[in-house]
Amino acid sequence: MAAPMGRHILIVDDDGLLRRSLVLSLEKAGYRATTAASAEEALGCVEVEPPDLVLLDIGLPGIDGLDALRLLRRRLDAPVIFLTARRRELDEVLGLELGADDYVTKPFDTDVLLARIRAVLRRVVSAARPEPPAAIEVGDLRIDPAAHTVSLGGRSVDLAPREFDLLLALAREAGRVVSVDDLLQRVWGPEYVGEPQVVYVHIRWLREKLERDPRRPERIVTVRGVGYKLLG
């Protein structure tokens, strides 16, 4: 799997040979890599150009990797993978509790490291991408906001955009009364507050499509002086 072009990875390690080797491997894999030999240098780098991911050695001179992670977290919201030659699990567990996203033990296979980098970046992208809103079911009425579809008893119902938005607003508060002004605010916007007629008309249209007898509604009911309520 190719790396997303231009993803910037910061390598923080005091081993110059390892830094050069990692730069070559990362650039060959499609990443853009910069390096720092110490935590102090790394902190300066992230101020100038925040990376998309940090490879951070635990055994750094001066400020070690664990303290560096604390300081990085104050400046940077990017995943961190620890590189460690220490076999003690304490450092690894502590590092993950501090907010590191993964760790790789030295010496490591470059392909393994690249796979870990891809996995961590995928998790970050997935976390940033909002989940599509779940479908709402009220009795035999099903509203799917992601697909923008409505079905009643398994039969598709064709709604105009405003009708759909109005029904969705009621469905999200199913069983509770929603005031006319609240519906105007949610569906049409604040500039329509004080113009209830637009809600009355759209409620009538919805009833014609969803009620067995629109003149005697059982699904979208009026609560006089308050608003409307969607029942299952």
Detailed description of the structure:
By secondary structure, the chain is of the alpha/beta class. The chain folds into two domains: 8-128, Rossmann fold; 136-230, Arc Repressor Mutant, subunit A (Orthogonal Bundle), CATH 1.10.10. Helix content is 41%, strand content 21%. It is built from eight helices and twelve strands. The chain has a five-stranded parallel sheet, with helices on both faces. Strands 6-7-8-9 form a four-stranded antiparallel sheet, with helices on one face. α2 runs parallel beside α3, α6 (161-171) packs across α7 and α6 crosses α8. The longest helix has 19 residues, at 110-128. The radius of gyration is 28 Å and the shape is elongated. The mean pLDDT is 88.
Quickly count the domains: 2
Q: What structural category characterises the helix and strand content?
A: alpha/beta
Query: What strand line-up does the widest sheet have?
Result: 2-1-3-4-5
CATH superfamily of the largest domain: Response regulator
The major pleated sheet works out as: 5 strands, parallel
Strand content: 15-25%
Using only C-alpha atoms, the radius of gyration works out to 28 Å
Please trace the helix and strand order, writing H or E for each element: EHEHEHEHEHEEEEHEHHEE
Q: Whole-Å distance between the termini?
A: 48 Å
